[in-house]
Amino acid sequence: MEKNNWLVISTISKNNLPQSSVVMYNSDGKEIYFVTGKNTLKTKNIQFNDNVSITIPFYRNLFHKLIPAPPAEIHFKAKAQIVSKQDEKAREVLKEIIEFEEKTGTTEESIWIKVTTGRKIATYGVGVKLLDMRKPEKARNIVEIN
After folding, report:
1. What pLDDT, in 10s, does the model give residues 23-59?
2. Cα–Cα distance between 102 and 108 in angstroms, integer?
3. Which CATH number covers residue 42?
4. Predicted local confidence at residue 11, as pLDDT
5. Element (H, E) at 117
6. In sequence order, what DSSP letters do the residues of 23-67 get, joined into one string?
7. Does residue 1 lie within any of the structural domains?
8. HSE on the CB side for 125, CA within 13 Å?
9. Burial of 83 (0-12, 13-18, 19+ CB in 10 A)
10. What's the domain count of the chain?
């Protein structure tokens, strides 16, 4: 989670309809933080229902991009919450994004979201040989975290 900087977050609307968005994020390896607009659909959905699903796809190396295999990924169910801009941990993790926002003057329009992972993380293509990623039965795994 720490090495990547973008993910797909899926939320549920008041009408129980799914909605997915790509966001840039920062992580300390345990929690994910991202900045978004106050009035975005994902913000409204998180205010209504804090259950989200996260997918983080990535290529393991340059060779991986060249072979006919899907990207590796981790995905998990999580809880999302809006956090205060005074939250010290959020400020530390989001430092680079905050500096960019301050330069561009977009801080008033944004809110900060913290995503806390569940205990189980599903993986695809993590810890397997690159060519085995074409074999789902070898490429899939579930990892429990504390």
Report:
1. 999 998 889 999 999 999 999 999 999 999 999 998 7
2. 9
3. 2.30.110.10
4. 98
5. strand 110-117
6. EE-EE-SSEEEEEEETT-HHHHHHHH--EEEEEEEE-SSHHHHHS
7. no
8. 18
9. middle
10. 1
DSSP letter, residue 85: T
Q: Mind listing the pLDDT tens digit for each residue in 4-29?
A: 889 999 999 999 999 999 999 999 88
DSSP state of 119: S
128 secondary structure, DSSP code: S
Tokens linked to 109: 């329009």
Residue 119: domain span: 6-144
68, pLDDT greater than 90 = no
Cα diameter, the chain = 49
Q: Are 34 and 24 in contact (CB under 8 A)?
A: yes
SS3 call for 16: coil
The torsion defined by the Cα of 117, 48, 36 and 39, in degrees rounded to 10, comes to 180
- Are 23 and 105 in contact by the 8 Å Cβ rule? The answer is no
For 107, the 3-state DSSP assignment is helix
Q: Two tokens at 27?
A: 């992580």
Instruction: Using alpha carbons, list the distances in angstroms from residue 51 to 48, 81, 144.
Output: 9, 9, 19
Cross-strand pairs, 77? 53
How far does Cα 24 stand from its chain's mean position?
8
